[in-house]
Amino acid sequence: MLEYPFFSEAAASRFLEVLEAHSVPYETESTDDGPACIRLDEDAISDEIADRLDSLYDELLESADFLGDETSLDKDLAGFEVALSDGTRVTVPIDTDIMKKLTSALSIEEIQSLLAAVANAVETRDTRPLCHFDQPTESP
């Protein structure tokens, strides 16, 4: 599942326009302020469309309207949603300066993969040293 969080209805609307133009199925999670998260089944879209969407999202991240109005900018919020093994979704708040650095170096998919790996290691309490990660884990 690909997840794209938004803090601005204008940025989310622009993203949704592209999804609809390419007939990409999606789900939205909304708040009173508008769309908060747009979710896509990555298996339902081509790599080409996924790359276009990542590029658009990166472009929107850099735009002034991504975070919304000045009150949103004053909040200085950024984060990613991570799915835990039991299906619970938690939001990981990330300092906006760190978010800008992350998104300038990594794609959204790479960041989500990183956070999923951290969540998995924490949930499973995987305490093996790094040199043992090429070996299968033992079942409890």
Can you walk through the features of this model?
The protein is of the alpha+beta class and 140 residues long. The chain contains 5 helices and 5 strands; from the N terminus they run βαββααββαα. It has helices at residues 9-21, 47-62, 70-75, 96-105, 108-124; strands spanning 2-5, 27-31, 34-40, 79-83, 89-93.
Spatial sequence of strands, sheet with the most strands:
1-3-2
Calculate the mean pLDDT score and round it.
79
| Helix/strand order, N-terminal first | EHEEHHEEHH
Structural class: alpha+beta
Count of runs of 4 or more consecutive helical residues: 5
Helix content: 40-55%
* Rg on CA atoms, Å: 17 Å
Q: Biggest sheet: strands, sense, closure?
A: 3 strands, antiparallel
| Distance N to C terminus | 28 Å
Q: Any idea what the shape is?
A: globular
Care to count the β-strands? Answer: 5
Q: How much strand? A: 15-25%
Number of domains: 1
Unreliable spans are 69-74
List keywords for this structure.
single chain; 140 residues; alpha+beta; three-stranded antiparallel sheet; two-stranded antiparallel sheet; 5 helices; 44% helix; globular
